[in-house]
Write a structure and sequence with these properties.
globular, single chain, about 180 residues, four-stranded antiparallel β-sheet, alpha+beta, two-stranded antiparallel ribbon, Lipoprotein_repeat, 2 domains
């Protein structure tokens, strides 16, 4: 029985899927020492930590969503990272003013489709063609970006950098400007 618990705990700690099979003894406790462990298996039950992983994966199915941060509710990409506007971008111009070294620190939020999938964003969402040919996501006609200084979801370290980078509210408004 101890071996079974170690296997189950190891599988859960490694983020195993709920469909992974775990070797265990019979429920009556009458283990047959001759029977190989693989003959008596059960499905592992879902662990709350796995549900959080599933929620994170589900967020990855959208291009934009909303999340709570220290600045309130903001637009985030599919991985939960904060989205930013660049004040030098002209709304509805179809281009990004962030080029060269700017893109190193402020990578564009891109999507595989001309019609991004959104959840919780009430502003108008679209795309423009980025310099590399990908679809850069726009909010209210303005290209949006990530900040390399944000290490984790919820970080807003790019807010007001050089007084031209702004976190975006779900309705498309700049936060703090």
């Amino acid at each position: 029985m101890r071996r079974t618990h170690r296997i189950l705990i190891s599988a859960l700690a490694a983020g195993a899927l709920s469909t992974a099979l775990v070797a265990c003894s019979s429920p009556e406790g009458d283990d047959d020492p001759e029977a190989p462990d693989s003959e008596t298996t059960e499905e592992a039950t879902t662990d709350p930590a796995e549900e959080e992983t599933d929620d994170a994966a589900a967020m990855g199915d959208v291009d934009l969503a909303t999340a709570e941060t220290s600045l309130g509710e903001v637009i985030v990409d599919g991985a939960g990272m904060t989205a930013y506007y660049f004040s030098n971008d002209v709304p509805d111009s179809g281009t990004s003013a962030c080029e060269g070294d700017c893109l190193v620190n402020w990578p564009p939020i891109t999507t595989e489709s001309e019609t991004p999938t959104v959840e919780g964003v009430t502003a108008e969402v679209g795309t423009i063609t980025a310099a590399d040919g990908s679809f850069q996501v726009t909010v209210d006609g303005r290209p949006i970006y990530l900040f390399v200084g944000d290490a984790a979801p919820g970080d807003v370290n790019g807010q007001a950098v050089q007084d031209v980078w702004w976190v975006i509210a779900p309705d498309g408004a700049e936060i703090g400007n």
